[in-house]
# Entry
Amino acid sequence: MTTSRRNFLRGFTGLAALGAGGCLTTRSDGKVRLAVVGIWGKGYEDWKWFLTHGKIEVAALCDCDRNMLPIAQAQLRKDGFDLDISKIPFYTDYRRMLDDADKLGIQAMQISTPDHMHAAMAINAMKKGIHVYVQKPLVRTLWELERFKATARECGVITQMGNQGSSGSSFRRGVEILQSGLLGDVSEVHIWTNRPVWPQGDWAKSLLARPDDPVPPGLDWDAWIGTAKMRPYKGERGVDKRDYPWCIKVGNTKVYHQFNWRGFTDFGAGALGDMASHLMNLPYRGLKLGAMAWANCRVATEVNPGIYPATSIVDIGFVGRPELKFTWYEGCLKPAEDLMAPILQVEKAIPVGGCIIIGSKGTMYSTDNYGQTSYIMMKGESKPVSILEHEACKAVAETLPRRYEPRTTGNYGEFIDAILGETPYIADVHSRCYGDVEHSIPLMEGMLAACAAQCVPGTRLCWDTKTQRFDNDVANAMIKPFIRSGWEF
# Structure
């Protein structure tokens, strides 16, 4: 069997990173120099966990909004971190930071930004031999997905997608049980979420009609727009709460920055981009689903150009699995009540997100967003039992390494330790990182095809992985993003 350059590097017990600049080496103190892109919101949650690891040194900070600096500093002190970020080089434009990457000694980069910038930042970093931790979704479009995969393989870097549940031992136990075939022939998978909890549908359309506003001091609007088409800034203009049944009452009415970008197709991947990387993760890994074949958004409400629907139901088909019914529900839409009823025997209420996997011999119920709590009910049984306690599950062998938990250093620790060569090699993904491209790319393919289907509701979109094309011209126009001059990757 031949060994690819990428897999050789991943199996290497030192720092595996070859780029155009040569071979990166570990520091004498054994720490990895990390660049942080996105310092507040989800970004802060990410680099906070990196800081707890103990084997990183922050080499640079990047955020398009300088106003986040004092907020992040105050929260660091509150959380007990003795770190003065005023002494760390700061950039509003990631391109300028990468220009200085060699001088800064950047070895790894955390990317926690709006979805439309993930691919550009990660690909340009990987070309410099920099390992990348990229928040979900890995990228926003299918064209970017193919570019990400090719670049990661060519540059031999380690990547990790931020679907943090992957690191948990309970999640990995669920994968082992599914892969064992204990459920028999699986015929149905149902996944639901309460997302979106941000403006989509007609609500998002109404926000676009608001007047333009001046860009606030400290915000680099050009850097925030990045690869996308330039448009005016629209800021806060009073409270606008929509009492949709699918949405918590949100009072933030800024149209894009800081939070409400996700429902616009130019910037986000909607509810699928937010939660499918978590909620699809367990059945995708456990059933070894592979390439996506088609997607059909059979239910969609409040459909508007350039905006994801308010609610939707999407069916997804996978190559070689014509018998499998795989359905995604969002906007608080859910599977049929009879399918959900057993959950109420073990939980006080139906969770805001979860997954049901139905086989010929039994059913698995995952009752949280990250696959950490799962139950199984075999045929003839009257009540689900935890997969950690069910007698039938105890006979299933452990095949995946256990080391990290989502509420400790989790995926973050695995990423850093993989760079240092201190994690076991995982054969399933040919990497020391469980969320590396051999898993994240095919998982994202199905998710992004479902996003395209939401924009062409009622049409079954067939996808050819080899040609990277749909059988629909409207959907094909969404494969590649707009890339503004000067922001190429």
